[in-house]
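Morning run. Coffee first, then this:
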Amino acid sequence: MAVLLPNRIDYVAAWYGLTKIGVASALINNHLAGAPLAHCLRVADASHVIVDGETASSGASWRSRSPSGRWVNRKATSAT
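And here it is:
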């Protein structure tokens, strides 16, 4: 499982939840795009990638080349 989220509470919740259930997760830098992002996801060999509204667009090019991977898009919510 790869986690591609910006630094906010959703990131901590995703990482902690995955860790608690024993899932090995690759924590991917959310500022990567294009070839560097593709390289990190290929090396991580993740079957799923958790993204949100902000990071989903950076993975669009990689997603088209990786039909076997599943992308979980967590809708971003604004804190008031």
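Confidence is low (pLDDT under 50) at residues 76-80. Good start to the day.
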